[in-house]
Amino acid sequence: MKLPKATEGSAWYQGKFESPVFKLWGSHAGLAERLFNVLKDFGATSQDFTIEGSAGSSALVYTVLKSNFIVRIKLDGFEVTFHSINSVGAENATKIGIGCWQAIKDSSNETNLSQHELTIAFQFPVEVNQYKEIIESFLAIPKSLPPGTLPGIAFYLPAGQRTGD
Predict the structure, then answer these.
(1) Which portions of the chain are predicted below pLDDT 70?
(2) Across the chain, how many H-helices and E-strands are there?
């Protein structure tokens, strides 16, 4: 079965540092300025910058509503969330991610990434008969349920686990 063209999508990148980078918290200004210089080409303004949390959970954050993405730098890593990959585009999303990493590296050269995680989601318009065909290939509707019941699939990870390996 051929799926229709995706109408919307989102992406979430997480990069974990080898160890906490306290040097980044010595002066927020240098890192904030480097990030701004990367993100201004994608709609960021100085009003998009905040520092959230405190102590070990604090994060330097750019929430760029104009382009629908958030960059969050923490002691143990950084993440970029694109709520609408369509409004940013895959090429620009890549430039944003690489630019943020370069800004971090320029602020603390000894910083290294030890883990990467990328989650991508797409939305597709699917007709009822297509939906049933796709989902029913994964599970059967119990005969005890009333006619017209539509199947659905959900996966629930154990508490505290973020990925399944």
Answers:
(1) 1-3, 27, 55-56, 163-165
(2) 4, 6
What's the length of the chain? 165
Which pair of tokens denotes residue 84? 């609408």
> Which tens digit of pLDDT belongs to each residue from 106-133?
999 999 999 999 999 988 777 777 777 7
Joined tokens for residue 158 = 């154990």
User: What are the tens digits of pLDDT across the range 25-37?
Assistant: 776 788 999 999 9
Question: For residue 134, what are its two tokens?
Answer: 């796709």
Residue with tokens 């154990």: 158
Alpha-carbon gap, residue 61 to 71, rounded angstroms: 6
Alpha-carbon distances of 123 from 7, 68, 126, rounded to whole Å: 6, 17, 9
Distance CA 31, CA 47 (A): 16
Q: Supply 79's token pair.
A: 């993440």
* Joined tokens for residue 165: 């390996």
In the chain, beta strands by DSSP E: 8-17, 49-52, 59-64, 69-74, 77-82, 113-123
Please name the residue ranges forming H helices in 18-123.
28-39, 85-88, 90-107
Judge contact between 122 and 6, C-beta under 8 A. Answer: yes
